[in-house]
Task: inverse folding
């Protein structure tokens, strides 16, 4: 009888494990509502903006009473546009910047390219021009690269400028 009980317990554990695995697989298959699991592919900058816009529209619609139409984006009473963030790349690294509606730029973050570091003396703005300097590693004979970053109609642009430091 002891062998029979052991076999029944083992069979029950196998059945529970199989059911749990099948349930997990079924939930994963059912959670894919958009033609590919959301966690299986990274989003590019445009996709992130689109997702944020949809989420923002959903929140605004839920706060707007049903009897009052939501304001159109082109109406004159709409809030001022928020700063547009984008990435500008340059030889010494990359920076995420905000191009503000008033034409100013603000450095949000920056990271050096391999073999460089960004000098601590960063002028992040907001201002007409943001500045930073990419310096090569100690063993590297290359010159420091000072950059002016501006917002243009085509987006942010980084331009190498003469090094202002007199070291």
Result:
């Amino acid at each position: 009888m002891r062998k029979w009980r052991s076999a029944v317990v083992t069979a029950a554990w196998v059945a529970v494990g199989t059911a749990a695995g099948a349930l997990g697989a079924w939930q994963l298959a059912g959670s894919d509502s958009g033609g590919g699991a959301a966690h299986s592919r990274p989003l590019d900058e445009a996709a992130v903006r689109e997702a944020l816009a949809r989420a923002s529209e959903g929140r605004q619609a839920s706060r707007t009473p049903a009897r009052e139409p939501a304001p159109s984006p082109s109406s004159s009473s709409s809030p001022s546009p928020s700063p547009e963030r984008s990435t500008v790349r340059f030889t010494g690294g990359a920076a995420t910047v905000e191009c503000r509606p008033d034409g100013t730029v603000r450095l949000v973050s920056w990271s050096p390219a391999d073999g460089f570091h960004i000098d601590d003396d960063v002028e992040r703005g907001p201002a007409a021009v943001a500045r930073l300097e990419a310096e090569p590693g100690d063993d590297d004979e290359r010159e420091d690269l000072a950059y002016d970053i501006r917002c243009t109609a085509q987006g942010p642009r980084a331009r190498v400028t003469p090094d202002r430091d007199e070291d």
